[in-house]
Amino acid sequence: MSEEMKKIASDDGHEKVLALSLSPEQRAKIIEVRKLIGTLSDKASVYCSDASISRYLKSQNWNVKKASQMLKLSLKWRHEYKPEEISWDEVSDEAETGKIYRPNYYDKHGRPVLIMRTNRQRSKSLKEEIKHFVYCMENAILNLPPNQEEVVWLVDFHGFNLSNISFKMTREVSHILQKYYPQRLGLAIMYDAPKIFQPFFSMVKVLLDPETCNKVKFVYSNDGNTKKIMEDLFDMDQLEQAFGGNDDTEFDTNKYAKRMRDDDNKMYSLWTQANSVSFVSHNIPSTDVFGADMVNRRDKKGIAIE
After folding, report:
1. DSSP 271-302
2. Mean pLDDT of 167-185
3. I need a labelling partner for 172 at 20 to 30 A (CA). Which of 148, 204, 224, 276 fits?
């Protein structure tokens, strides 16, 4: 490994912590996956860190063959869709209502938070909705602190009606989340979901694997037991009032846009640095120093999701 690569790796201790947490058998399975996926491009090499491969193995109960097949499909999707190249300006029309955004705080476990406001759904394009969702996931992963891999979703159901949801959109999101972002969802909190949502969720549950389904929690503001979930997870002074917190700050599109453009620059900068490193072999263990899979930006080609 070059001195430059060692310096990049030293910026994040996640791989070292991971190495200590894995058994010899699990480390051997990571090596097996590397052999099965074969030679990789530089970008794919960065994505296929030990931590990343470990997530795929965990999602498949450490079955090497299944994890390898899943990872290959994920790499194919990333190569074609280029999620790490989506910029704020490409999704700003979708995002300006604040229907999905990343607040500037973390939960008590250090997990980035993504908030969804169901009553702010205005999109008429499934393709653009999906692009915005993927952008939000990539941005949240970009902002993962060291030694944290998961993202928390908070879904606000105040003002909800059935026109706010689409089964087709939900199906696509479930597919992308489970197939291309395994082990990234830490928790999904459905806050004050009305009774009319329950039949819809019953249909959605068939799309979710058991582990993902178990991460969906329903919390109600008039239920002390479920409300405690929020108090245990969040600093209530940072949490929005819509979720029982004390922060009454309204979503500001202009301020948020500036944060996102700053993050776009951060992603570009880090991937420029990463791509300056020569990944001679896919057997060189890359790191999760960049959180997600950040690459040099190029013009989008408008490739649709399969």
Report:
1. HHHHHTS----TTS----TTSS----------
2. 95
3. 148
User: How far lies 160's CA from each of 82, 117, 157, 188, 226, in Å?
Assistant: 32, 9, 5, 17, 20
In this structure, the strands spanning 216-219 and 151-156 are unpaired
Q: Residue 111, class by beta-carbon neighbours within 10 Å (0-12 exposed, 13-18 middle, 19+ buried)?
A: buried
Contact between 113 and 154 under an 8 Å Cβ cutoff? The reply is yes
| DSSP single-letter state for residue 153 | E
CB 239 within 8 A of CB 245: yes
In the sheet with 100-101, reading across from the earlier edge strand, the strands are 100-101, 113-117, 151-156, 185-191, 216-219
Q: How many CB atoms lie within 10 A of CB 225?
A: 8
The three-point CA angle 208-126-211 to 5° equals 10
DSSP for 208-276?
S-HHHHHTEEEE-TT-HHHHHHHHHHS-TTTSBGGGT-SB-PPP-HHHHHHHHHHHHHHHHHHHHHHHT
Q: What's the predicted TM-score (pTM) here?
A: 0.85
Nearest Cα to Cα of residue 189 among 135, 139, 120, 245: 245
Q: Give the model confidence (pLDDT) of 92-101 as tens digits.
A: 999 999 999 9
CA angle 146, 64, 11 (to 5 degrees): 20
Q: Which of 130, 114, 113 is nearest to 166 (CA)?
A: 130
Residue 38 backbone class (left: φ over 0; alpha: ψ -120 to 50; beta: rest)? left
For residue range 196-243, list pLDDT tens digits in order: 999 999 999 999 999 999 999 999 999 988 889 999 999 999 999 999
Task: Give, in order, the Cα–Cα distances in Å from 8 to each of 239, 266, 288.
Answer: 34, 15, 10
* 52, two tokens: 């990343």
Q: Are the CB atoms for 228 and 200 separated by under 8 Å?
A: no
